[in-house]
Amino acid sequence: MTFVDRSEFGDHPQYDDLYKVAEEACTEGPEQAFAVEVGTRAGGSALTILDAIREADKNQWLITVDPYGNKPYLSVNSVLKDMYPDNFYREAMKHLSNYCEEFGTNWTHYKMKSLEWIKHWPNIEFWADEKILEPKIFFLHLDGDHTTSVVKQEIEDFWPYLTDNAVICIDDADQIEVDKVCEDLIHKVENNRVWLSKKDQTKDKQ
User: Fold this and answer.
1) CA distances from 170 to 12, 128, 129, 144 (A)
2) Among 137, 138, 155, 206, which residue is least crowded by beta carbons within 10 Å?
């Protein structure tokens, strides 16, 4: 499908690179697996990932995780003035719900912190074709708390659930200490995003 610019729903100036990589990840990813986004705000990047899932024409899910509720936007540099009030939550849920109703895509949101959610996710049942889906993630978009310690821990905690070809995108690279977050991981920084693929790693994380 033709790329749709979703930047009006988010705070990143470009979404075309996110769409391109997400679409490749969806195409290479297995059926009945998951894309996960941490930090949804008004829903721009989530809509872009849903576009990619729709283009791949597979039975895949998007899960978004964001606590909202006037939570400050944290970074290694400062506590930024942008907040995540409930009006962002309501608008994001409206846009995403309308999209999924129109196109029949699979999406679920959890209003909680990422490191708490990942503890519970393996015990949450997602059903398709009369069976429980395995907790497999083929695309992970990290755009929540932009502190080095949190993002590094997110990678550690999510890693066991990534498929062999899974791709990770970390947004707002200038807000974290990339070398510390991606220690011992092959990665690149483009368009203020950090990109890494599990298949590129010389050894698996323990």
Assistant:
1) 12, 29, 33, 9
2) 206
